[in-house]
Amino acid sequence: MMYQSESGYFQYVVFLFLATGALILTIDAKRLKASNMPREGKYAFLLGWLNILAGIAVWGGNWVYSAFFA
């Protein structure tokens, strides 16, 4: 039962973190930097990477929990 979580929504949460992070990086951050809004572009860049890292952390935390504690 590896990668099995208590809730059936776990895969959706990880996917949403990764997808929104990728979309923010590819669409929002580039568009803001191109429209001469560098500060907002930096914040969008940071937010995109934080979303991606949150998705990886949630997935990794679930893996550690299911592999060692469950």
Quick tags:
70 residues; mainly alpha; 81% helix
General description of the model:
With 70 residues, this protein is mainly alpha-helical. It has one domain. Helix content is 81%, strand content 0%. The chain is built from 2 helices and no strands. The chain is elongated and about 50 Å long.
- What is the rounded Rg? 15 Å
| Helix percent band | over 70%
Percent range for β-strand residues? under 5%
User: How many domains, in number, for the residues?
Assistant: 1
Shape: elongated
Unreliable residue runs: none
Total strand segments? 0
By secondary-structure content and strand pairing, the structural class works out as: mainly alpha
Q: Give the terminus-to-terminus CA distance.
A: 9 Å
**What's the total helix number?**
2
What do the pLDDT scores average to? 88
Tell me the major beta sheet: none
SSE string: HH
Blueprint (SSEs and pairs):
Blueprint: H1 10-34, H2 38-69
Keywords: Membrane, Transmembrane, Transmembrane helix
Transmembrane segments: 12-31, 43-65
InterPro entries: CLC_0170-like
Summed up, what is this model?
This protein is mainly α.
